[in-house]
Amino acid sequence: MRFFKSFLFFIVFSLSYVSGAFAQQEGEFSSQLDSARALEDSKEDTVILSAEYVRYATLEMLKKATYTKQIDTTHVNFHYYNPQNNPWNPSINLGSYGLATRDLLFQPTKTIGFQTGFHALERYLLHADSTKYYRARARYSELSAVGFFFDDQVFRAILSQNINPRWNVGAEYHATNTEGYYNNQEYNDRKGNVYTWYESESLRYNLLVNATFNSLDAGENGSILNDTVFRDPENPQPYSLQTRLRQTRENRPYNKWTDKSLFLRQSYYLGRLDTLHKGEPNMEIHPTNTIAHNSSIRHQRFLFFKNEEDLYGAFPFGDDVLVQDTTSVVTVSNELTYSFYLRNKSLKKNEARLDLGFENDLIWFQDSAVHRFYQNNIIKGELGYKFSDRIDFSATGEQIILGHNFGDFLYEGRADIALGENIGKISLGVYSQNKSPERVFEKMNYTYHQWAKDFSNTKTQNLSFQYKNPKIGFKGKAEYYLVSDYLYFKEVENPNNNPQLDRAIEPAQHGTLNVLKLTVGQNFKLGNFHLDNLAVYQKSEAMDILAIPELYTWHSLYYGNILYNVMDFRIGLDVKFNTPFRTPSYAINAGQFYNDNVGIEFSTYPIADVWLTSNIERVNLFLSYNFVNQHVYPKGYYTVRRYPMNPAFLRFGVSWKFYD
Asked: Could you tell me the CA-to-CA distances from 600 to 106, 118, 596, 603 in Å, in that order?
């Protein structure tokens, strides 16, 4: 009955929208007459309401200058709503939306300073730094929903309005409820932010404020008991399979993250202001001197809960029934920066830039056994030179000069060289990083895992070369990493098969490893047919320690056209594949992926999805059927040991923008 009601709602919604779209076209002439008559009666200036006048900026953009970008109104890539399944950044995971996830490709984190080391749910977080600050002539809002008549619902709403031409306020809200396909795979989140952007009439002062909250709740079932489910001739349904953890409702085992923050930035432009596109929506204000102060407070909390006996070996040896392992971190940051620019007034010739900054972090850490206070003082800088629009050099650095993570640093250099519209662009990169061990590697005080270790800092040296030529649809990148003292998790060695050591993990450090990563993307077009391709090759002498595949490829074949001058659409087939690799296991209450003692390499098959995306006026739609080849071969597959991936499933999504 639930599905029938949802399906009926979908049919009614679709018919009413399509009829409304065509009725809008038929009534366009009369609407124009009404608008003209109203304008004549009111004798007011014309107000143009279109996507061109709905624009946004991010913190990273506003650190350099005051400029905005137009909102994206296309349906391109709309069906990649799941952060686990981004084809350009694929993952391994526990098989359902919202559950623990780890990168499939090698990409070290370029951060320094104090880090907790919890990353399993990081892809679902809404970060304060990623907030979009809008400017709109009229109220702007957007509603989107995915899978809302299936078992999974992913909803998002955006509302933004300018109180006056220089002051905007807005809010963003996300709500997700997913049931998964196997028992105890429920996930839900509530996350969002409220924000404001104020610019003074003189265009010199800018104020950014946002308050961001995240509450992520991921169910844990400990994996299914049947390790040969895809070889079972009876082909059992996922919900009929027994899992290692079985409690429900208030005793349901779960990992819960809460992440709340308040951010404030004030900046002031000194000296001459250079302006581009004056009076237009895309106007840019480029300062010659900027002083800025950023202040933030952030509270992170990580909780694992269970209230049942471990009858089927989901955890290491132990007899605890009630477990509430908790880690809490409060961080207060203050940053003061000064920026200087030396350029020609036309903004078309050489430009030199210098950024200097100082940041102080105060950190209060608490887990199940200890309370600690830490402090870090960081100096930052950037030096750059831009030769017209073709060559841009920059060198950045940040180093902790005093505090708990003293000695951490990240120095980076980059050069972008534009060779011409038909030839393409070259980017050269280099960075050197010295990073302290994250907290989970040094100390763990949880129910099933306790250790105190003393590890060396991880040192990473990187060289990269990238070539892009949009004219021919080509992109290629070569990266080399030299990593010393690489940190990872592994199962405790157990040569005598002692059952008390099963699933017990510990941190470990590998001496030196070399990683070569080659990424090639080539897009082809023949008429209305498109073929987009991506291949990533990664090789190291320590592939088993890294637990990554040697080759990953993704291919998307689709047809795009405009139907009756009304609906812009694409219909296509995606296929992804990676070579077998040492598939990691997952430590539930520690929230960590680790290398087990078995070292299984699961067979990997091409996974195919069919999809349709479209745009009608301000509405984007998609319909996708994922893992369609399950009906032929194979019956299923794994990316994490014992956790089967989702079976074939259908998804529908709609997004509607309003700006009038």
From this structure: 20, 25, 9, 10
